[in-house]
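Before a colleague's protein record goes any further, I have to sign it off. I want your independent view on whether this chain really folds as the tokens say. The record follows directly below this note.
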Amino acid sequence: MNLNSRRQFFAGAAASVAGLAVARSALAGLPEPVIQTSVATAPPLIPTTGRPYNPVVTLNGWTLPWRMNNGVKEFHLVAEPVVREVSPGFKVNMWGYNGQSPGPTIEVVEGDRVRIFVTNKLPEHTTIHWHGQRLPNGMDGVGGLTQRAIPVGKTYVYEFEARRPGTFMYHPHADEMTQMAMGMMGLWVTHPKARHPHISAVDRDFCFLLNAFDVEPGSKTPKINTMTDFNIWCWNSRVFPAIDTLNVRLNDRVRIRIGNLTMTNHPIHLHGHEFLVTGTDGGPTPPGTRWYEVTTDVAVGQMRQIELIADAEGDWAMHCHKSHHTMNAMGHDVPTMIGVDHRGLVGKIQKVAPDYMLMGERGMADMGEMQMPIPDNTAPMMTGSGQFGPLEMGGMFTVFKVRKEQKPGDYSDPGPYRFPAGTMAYEWTGATPQATRPSGSSPAEPAAASAVKPGGKGMAH
């Protein structure tokens, strides 16, 4: 897991307490924070203490280790500035937890008594709200309402019982606009303590958060005052092609948990399979309320849990179906250049601007092939590629890889899919008849060159 520290705890550190009182003996030793800097998907953390459960795999993330203290499961979160590699060559200054944004996934079992130490290493105060949890009001983490905010340099303690199974999130409720825009969030999974009528056993259990940032090309720090014009659309603070693939065995029962802490909804679409929505923020959905989908909309502040049988081999796309969210580094003031006649114009412009490049006259697909120069520390646009060439995708996109030879418990990437003979689309090389048109009709006119004036402000640089 590439953890910087695996030791369980050190003694002698003091802690402040928020909300309900914590026994003095519990404060005798603060769990040592475990820090993670790798951006790779970590293998599942198999529980060695506490009650057993089937662990999740966090896409491009990891699960936070804990210690048992007199029957209480203790975690230590450190709120701190971090640098997240969103894609190779593109790093962003964020705020997060334990070296990462999002922070580590917390996994517990229904009925566990949980104690979370939160140390504030940010430049301002903070809190943590346990989104969706049933807990004492004083542990809800709303600064000014249910607790005093955690001052810089201090450690507060949250303690409650994990009362119901499901997928939840955590994030600040203090200067929330800034802190969430900087990446402060994480996932919480509560596993059932026994067989549950609405929760099936699965072979693979994945989870990730949807998050978004506004980072100007060449810069490293998000613009925190942005309300709608985000340009970096992420899964767990990564953009395609830097998002890991979901690798499963043929006929595995697969669960995928998706939480949304962006400022808009995301219709998540999986190719090649239909799935059931088996859980929401409110917990598992009764079987009689479920129906099959291939796309589920995850609204702001919501979680959706989907399940499917991976019964179709192949490399299946999984992505947000808002097309701008699979682009990376979107520009919002870009005119449409399709149909504009630039003949003779490019050479003249290059005499005064040698780096000028024509883009968009025939659509935007050329951008996925040309690998145009971009400023340092900028997310590349539409640069994902597959075994047949450019995918012309970025942002919220990955691949669901189903293989019959994938071993149980093996999460490694099996590589490109080998297509059986006769199962691929192919070029037609026979005769092509001419289309017939109703009398009086004529072919569509090409777009008028005057629709957009050449040289206008936009994507032609």
